[in-house]
Design brief:
Layout lengths: L10 H10 L6 H8 L3 H8 L7 H11 L3 H19 L7 H4 L2
């Protein structure tokens, strides 16, 4: 369920606060472990880049969470923000007729 009064936690914030900081690994150290540039990881941590299927696989393998965890966080983030801008679309009339 998505929070109503605040945005969901961005996966990058979750990565930093719940995984990297508790195990005391720097962003640079984790980026090196993944074979990524520091910039790529930092953009996710700062919320400037979303978690792709590829990054979700890498995070899931490295952190033992599975990729679905990361993709679900990203989905919640994207959906919450899209709902704030969305213009309601009427259902097709053909769908309501027998």
């Amino acid at each position: 369920m998505l929070p109503k009064n605040r945005p969901p936690t961005h996966p990058g914030e979750m990565l930093l606060m719940e995984f990297l900081e508790p195990i005391e690994i720097s962003q640079r150290g984790f980026a090196d472990h993944l074979g990524w540039t520091y910039a790529r990881l930092n953009e996710i941590v700062k919320g400037r880049r979303g978690v792709s299927a590829d990054s979700a696989l890498a995070f899931g393998e490295a952190l033992g969470t599975g990729p679905e965890f990361w993709l679900n966080l990203q989905r919640g983030w994207d959906l919450w923000h899209s709902m704030r801008k969305h213009r309601t679309v009427e259902p097709l009339k053909q769908l309501n007729e027998p």
